[in-house]
Amino acid sequence: MNREVELKLELAPDAADAFGRLDWFPADSDVATLRSIYFDTAQRDLAGRGISLRIRRANGQRVQTVKADGEGGAGLFARAEWEMPVADDAPVLDARTPIAELLGQGVHGIQPVFHAEVERRRWIVRQDDALIELVLDRGQVSAGDRQAAICEVELELKSGSPGALFLLARRIDAEMPVRPGVLTKAERGYRLRDRLAAFVKAEPVALDPSMRAEEALSRIAGSCLRHYRLNEALLLDHYDPGALHQARVAIRRLRSALSLFRPMLAPADVERFQGELKWLAAMLGEARNLDVLAERVETEELRERWDAVRGEVHGRVQEWLRSARVRMLLIDLVEWLTLGAGLGGGKALAMRDEPAADFAARRLRRLRRRIAKEGRGLAGLSDEARHEVRKDAKKLRYASEFFAGLFEGRKARRRRGKFIAALEQVQSELGALNDLVAAPGLLAHYGLGGEEARLRPKRKRKRKLLGAAARAHEDLLEAPRFWR
């Protein structure tokens, strides 16, 4: 079994020709056509276990490769890998791979599920003291009658420090825009087999009770970055309100993760990333607010004026998403996580080695106490104070979802379900209140201050919402804790 460490970057297809002509590339390169068949069972048993199985044909030879997911998710992939030559396109599933042991009798259901064909151009590049294999892949993945283009760069570390991968990535971006890639070719194939989604929701974070706090941080933050990039890619293709909302949720989740793990991080790093992420969230938030309020616009005249405003803001969103500022923020975050997440010294250094479940329980208790304290007399609080309670409820919900895998057992799962349901109800009621309160200011900001009366009224008025929010807060405090 080998261990590969590679940084995957996405490149616009129309930039691929220019990429191959960069004047600082080595003169020597090799080109090969790679044709791959990916296998799984009809029930996708391998994909469900984070395993990919392919047979690739190149230069007259066939090589079977099995890969197991590692700490990928935000551009950097570190995975277990098993390779062997094979005679034909039939997988060899003996003791040299983990598949037979994992699937048992299910191994007999292995069959082709999709294909990929790419032209691969490869260079060996030296960056400082590191030797890096730089690959440009161009082609497509096919599943049935569906196809999707592939245009990506892979930087695989052959020797030296992983930091060299990021120096090289920035060097490339200075010539043409690149972004961290989060999909393997296998994932592209599986997604192609499914109905293409307009947006992507957050995936469960793979944590287990044996992990240390430092490992939990890496998994959680990497999952948030993956969530963002999947939706950003959709937005860069065309604007969709759902993808915009999910990209914003991903940023909020990442900011919450940084807050949760702040005690073990270098303060300067947290402040730097929180500042940039806050800016990005605000930029996305402006568009989201306009999208939400558009659902309340009834008259044709106001809708035309509102759509014109939305169109301008949507255009700015796509302009900023294409900016170097956003691209470098993403690459900086991936590098920060890869090289140790700027962990602080002293107590912070010791904290990273403690069991993740202990760290999580302590942070969950703290957030719950804060909501209990700040939400007292909820109906009588100011709009601003209720908004703070709403933000804390989001943080607690994200933390509960992040740390779910650390608390096993049927009882813990049942309690967690009830606890998160109570949090969702608090968020829902306080969110409706916030929309009601924010509408006049939003209209005034765009020169439509006299138009509030022409909006479709909310089904529930403020008094009813206040009562519902107060009851939801009480239910949350009565919900049993799922952590120990």
UniProtKB/TrEMBL annotation:
Gene3D superfamilies: CHAD domain, Hypothetical Protein Pfu-838710-001. Residues 210-484 form the CHAD domain. InterPro entries: CHAD_dom (IPR007899), CHAD_dom_sf (IPR038186), CYTH-like_dom_sf (IPR033469), CYTH_domain (IPR023577), YgiF (IPR039013). PROSITE patterns: CHAD (PS51708), CYTH (PS51707). It holds the Pfam family CYTH. Residues 2-196 form the CYTH domain. It comes from the Bacteria. This is Inorganic triphosphatase. It comes from Sphingobium fuliginis (strain ATCC 27551).
